[in-house]
Structure formats: structure tokens, C-alpha cells
Amino acid sequence: MNWKQRIYRLTHWEEWHYHVKYIPLLPVWLWYILRARSVWFFTPANPTLTFGGMDGETKEEMYTQLPPGTYPNSIFIDPGLPENQLKELWQSSGLRFPVAVKPNVGMGGMMFRKLKSMESLLRYHAYIDRRYVIQEMINYPMEVAVFYYRMPNQEKGTVSGFISKEKPVVVGDGKSTLQQLVQQHKGVRFMEAEMFTKHREQWTTIIPNGEEYTLLEVSNRTQGGKMISLAHEIDDRLVSVMDSVSRYSNTFFYGRYDIKCASIEAFKSGRDFSILEFNGCGSGVQHVYGNGYSLWQACKMILHHWNMMFRISRYNHSKGIPYWSFMKGYTFLQHSKKELRHLKKLDAGFKEE
User: Fold this and answer.
1) What pLDDT does 223 receive?
2) What CA–CA distance (Å, rounded) separates 133 from 101?
3) pTM
């Protein structure tokens, strides 16, 4: 990283490590711990998500809480399953290539891949040592994220954030190599080493003028994705759709949905959309990005969401849903950290087709 990049990162709070951004807010978090008399005060917020959805929740538990037809056709595969049984499951699933594959407990897009053939699926299956999901590729053109919360004793919730998400793509100019285009890309220019690992064979290739080259198939901001505000699109129709989805299990009260849709209008009409996943208490308040907010404004928004998470948790606790014990939460977090390190190693070691 050269000195210009270092200065840019220092002067743009959006580029800081998320731990740094939250340090000034730590006293508020500690205050909620004291008020609840529980380190894991957030766990009752989403009672049927592991750890309240703060970390380590599975795709399986997400999808069982969603209305049928609102999420991709998916099958869950155990590592070590014999190839013939995998093929039998494939045949009966109705899935067709290309498909998306990712760990059942996903973290930061690690080991997410778009596979185009049975050969590539078998390679992935032989490599991964964690339970994973195979699901249809959703080809709707838009990916959006909706932050939603609702008090358990209320029928109507709140959509506090609405953004569109774009995966990192570079466009060739007929002169620059892929490396040079990566260095110029706002979202991934600080991830050059990772991009080299994933695209080493094309690294010195000149990308033809006007040709789009996809760097990653995920649109997470931490992976170079772009966030674009859709705050002006939040209205009663959008809230109504999210209320109907969230009240299906009546156990999801706080978090962010990642959704693909044909258009904003179709989504608001309750059609042509598919929920890729939803995240609970660990959901980043992503709509602080892409709006030109100052750090102060972003902190106020994060604190507002923490307050809602605390209020929802306290209400559910008053109705008999217990907080996790300290040791249960501590042990779980240590396991999650270990899993993240393992997934990073897996992701770095799995070569693309």
C-alpha cells in the first residue's frame, strides 16, 4: 500500500476497520450489558436464530423460517457424502447448472462459488469439509438489502435501511492489465493481494475495451461490493412486504435481509424476489454507507439500531426467553472464530476452474 492509499484510508472513515469505528460506541454497549445483567443481552432478539443471529447462524435455520417460495431452491450436503448419493440428491432436487454453493454457516462470502458443471461440483464437494448448501442461481438483476425491525408486541415494523448492492466488477479500456484495473477500483484497491490469489492467471492480461470482468460473485462491502442508497424508496408498500415475510415465523424481529429482485416495483408488489439470506443481531447497518454520511451521523444511526435491538431483547426476555449464559456464549464465539479462520484457509486454497 503506497502513501496515497494510506492517507486515503486514514481520512475516509468508511475504509477503517469496523472495530475502530465501534470503539467510541463501546460505552453504550457496556451500558446495555449492565442494564440486562447479561453479556449476551441481544440473544432473545431473534429467539429461533443461533446466538440471536449475532454470529454462526445456519442457512437451514434461516430458510425454515421463511414463507415457501421466497428463497432459492436449496439442498444441504454433508461433507464426505458418497458421490453417488450426491448425484442422486442432485437428480431429485430439480436444480440445474449453474448453481451457487456456500457453507451452511457462511462468513464474509468465504467459499461461495458459482459452479457450472457436475465436475466442478464434485471438486468442491471433495474439497470442503463443512456442511454446505447447493442452491439455484437467482438471475434477477437487482440485489438489495433491507434492514428491518419490529417490536414483538406490534403488528407493523420499520424498514430503517434500503440499499442496492453491486458486486465488484472492472471494465476494460483495452490498455490496462487486470492488475492495473484492480488498483484503480475503489472497492478492491486495498485487497490487491487477495485479488491476485483469485485471478493470478489473468493478472497481467489486458482487458478489452468495454468488457466487464467480475472480480467476485459476492456483493459484500467487505469483499469490494458497492452500496447505493435506496432510502427514497422506503414506503408503506415495502414495509408491508417485509412485515408479511417477518411475521411468517413470528420469531424474527431484528436484522437485515439480502434479496434479489426483478425490480423495486416488483419487490414492493410482493412478486419476483428471492431472499438469499437474512442476518440477525450481527447485521451490519450497511445503509450508513453510500449516503455520504459523516462519521457522527453513522454513529447515531448505529446507536439507534442498538437501542432497538436492546428493547426487543428485553421485551422477549420479559416473556420468558432467556439470555444465553456467559460460558455458553463465550464458548460459541471461540468456536466461531476458529471456524472463520478455517474458512479463510479453505477459501484461499480452493482454485477456480
Assistant:
1) 63
2) 6
3) 0.85
